[in-house]
Structure formats: C-alpha cells, structure tokens
Amino acid sequence: MAGTIRYHLDEHIATAVAVGLRSRGIDVTTTADAGLATATDEAQLEYAHDAGRVLVTHDADFLRLHNEGVEHTGIIYSHQQHRTIGELIRGLVLIHTVLSAGDMRNHVEFV
User: Fold this and answer.
1) Domain range enclosing 87
2) pTM surpassing 0.90?
3) Backbone conformation region of residue 107, classed left if phi is above 0, alpha if psi is from -120 to 50, else beta
C-alpha cells in the first residue's frame, strides 16, 4: 500500500484544516463530506480504512482502538489545545511529504 497519503478528517478537526490542505493539493475528505456526522469512532476508522485514507483526529479514543489492534490505514493524533490550525496544517503537510501511505499502515503519528 505504498503511495501518497490521502487524509480523512474526523468531526473534531476544523474545516479550515481541510481548506488549507486542499489549497496545497492534498487529497482530503471530512466527516461531513462522507456523511458520517453521527457515526461512531469505529465507523469513522472503518470508512478511512476502506477508502485508504489516514484518519486525522483530536479524539484520543482512536489511540485506544489502535492499542486494541484494530486494523487501520494510519492515525494522526493532535491534542486539540496544543496546536493551532496553522501548526496542524504544517504538520500534516510535512507528514504527507516524508511518509507514504504504506508507512502509515497501522501506525500512529503525533502532531
């Protein structure tokens, strides 16, 4: 599963992050785009996995799912109060630049 990272932002991530990534040519979907506004964390992770997207979240429950061994195409976690929108965008751009989709499989990165 090598290739370019494509992101899926859960509902906790500001829409401005999607706008910033898209303006840089990065493929990104959001919970709203996917019609998952009321979906469980498990359903969000399954959607991202099925779509071959790395999930970006502020929700620590996804770290629990990772630790429980749930298969995924990658999780990027950022504590909501520790990063500005600009810092989060810069971190995601950096990850997109240096890692592949294959690198992210069943892997967690912290921004």
Assistant:
1) 7-110
2) yes
3) beta
